[in-house]
Design brief:
The complex is a heterodimer of chains A (321) and B (97). With 321 residues, chain A is of the alpha/beta class. Chain A contains 13 helices and six strands. The radius of gyration of chain A is 25 Å and the shape is elongated. Chain B has a two-stranded antiparallel ribbon. Chain B has a two-stranded antiparallel ribbon with strand order 2-3. Classes of the chains: A alpha/beta (321), B alpha+beta (97).
């Protein structure tokens, strides 16, 4: 039985930081199986988690100086919440891992503690039927586990409430920027080429700045200012942030000889770009629904596409008027 | 999540009160406190807070809850549409897809 240390070292922190920036994120894993934190006995509780190393690290750090069993499921390096959505943090894997680790011989009780965000993948009553272990959904955050354990395994209302504060949003942004960078580079090259060819190098560079700014506004500013941007729709929030960016950019570069057509084109196209990227952040949030995103896309994508196309047409026509 | 409210009247969450046995699992698994148990039956007290994660439906032992659960990000949905039409996949796709 592997006994694991509950302190995190430099490499754990470095690894976590790299994963946040998308470096080797999909290979940041620990082998699935049963681990001992401290010196647990047959009576100590069993906590279930995913084999994403960041999930595992957060758990073992939180449970410093406690005796507890940690059952790590094979989720292919994906965190609990996303793996539950995909079904890899699921009923079948819980049953399989309980069986393959011989958990029933290691502990005398028949209880498993699962993170609440694992519930979209696990049917508690089926786990009980199939392997005899009763599932309790403990807390949302690992940070609440010590209180839960000290509290006689009772989930307080606070432990069951999702939050999405500024810091929680901030740590999600780096990987979004990295993931968007590939398509960003291609699109930026096209923007610069088209504008450069039709209006000279300086126009091309300016358009490139405007475009990258609009993308970053959508990916970074939209999510950070989420509660303060108007409306419930993410596309609207992104468009408002994009409009603010376009206005700032237009004012800062006022000396560059903007034609009225270029101004209108920028006011149409850039907010549409920001709106798309902020809408995509719905995948990172913990309160948007699939039906809501679908509705936003059905209404928003044609509008964004239309605004973008109209902007390009205006820009081209503007050169001949 | 009082600071964060998403669109109104869009979610597909449905509860069959007649089938409910009042076990309270839905209350336990919902991270947005959509359900409460009242008079031995579950009630949706805040349906618009639902994020369609599907935890309640999966954990309901009598299948009294239904919801269309799944990936909820824009690129994930675009990929779903593309794959349904066998048009490949968006590059740079992220999150859970």
């Amino acid at each position: 039985m592997p006994r694991i240390s509950s302190g995190l070292g430099f490499n754990d922190h470095l690894g976590g930081c790299k994963a946040r920036w998308g470096l080797g994120r999909m290979d940041y894993i620990v082998p699935p199986g049963l681990y001992a934190i401290g010196h647990p006995t047959a009576h100590d509780p069993v906590l279930v988690t995913a084999n994403y190393k960041m999930s595992y690290d957060i758990i073992r750090r939180t449970l410093t100086e406690r005796n507890i069993w940690l059952l790590v499921l094979e989720t292919y390096g994906i965190n609990v919440w996303c793996a539950a959505g995909k079904g890899t943090f699921g009923t079948g894997e819980v049953v399989r891992r309980v069986t393959s680790t011989g958990l029933a011989q290691v502990v005398s009780h028949r209880c498993l503690m699962l993170p609440i965000l694992g519930a979209p993948g696990v049917a508690a009553h089926q786990v009980a039927q199939r392997c005899g272990f009763k599932v309790s959904y403990a807390t949302i955050r690992a940070a609440d586990l010590p209180e839960y354990l000290d509290n006689g395994l009772v989930t307080t209302p606070g432990m069951q409430k999702l939050t999405f504060d500024l810091y929680e949003r901030l740590v999600l942004i780096p990987v979004e920027v990295v993931l968007a960078s590939k398509s960003l580079l291609i699109a930026a090259a096209v923007v610069m080429l088209v504008c450069g060819l039709s209006g000279g190098v300086s126009t091309g560079i300016m358009a490139l700045f405007a475009y990258i700014g609009a993308v970053l506004t959508g990916i970074v500013i939209g999510p950070l200012l989420l509660p303060w941007l108007p409306g419930r729709s993410f596309a609207v929030k992104g468009a408002v942030a994009g409009l603010a960016w376009t206005t700032c950019f237009r004012m800062l570069t006022a000396g560059a000889g903007w034609s009225w057509a270029a101004t209108v084109a920028a006011l149409l196209a850039l907010p549409a770009v920001s709106a798309f990227y902020t809408l995509n952040f719905t995948g990172c949030t913990t309160y948007t629904s699939r039906s809501g995103v679908r509705k936003e896309m059905r209404l928003g994508l044609p509008l964004m596409g239309g605004a973008l196309a109209l902007g390009v047409v205006l820009l081209v026509l503007g050169r001949y008027i | 999540m009082k600071d964060f409210r998403y669109l109104k009247d869009v979610v597909t969450l449905e509860l069959d009160r007649a089938g409910c046995i009042g076990c309270g699992r839905c209350v336990e698994v919902c991270p947005h406190q959509v359900f409460v148990v009242s008079e031995k039956k579950a009630v949706m007290q805040d349906r618009d807070a639902c994020m369609e994660c599907g935890a309640c439906a999966l954990n309901c032992p009598v299948k009294a809850i239904t919801v269309d659960a799944g990936v909820g990000c824009a690129s994930g949905l675009i990929n779903e549409w593309l794959q349904e039409r066998k048009l490949g996949k968006l590059s740079g796709g992220s999150c859970c897809s």
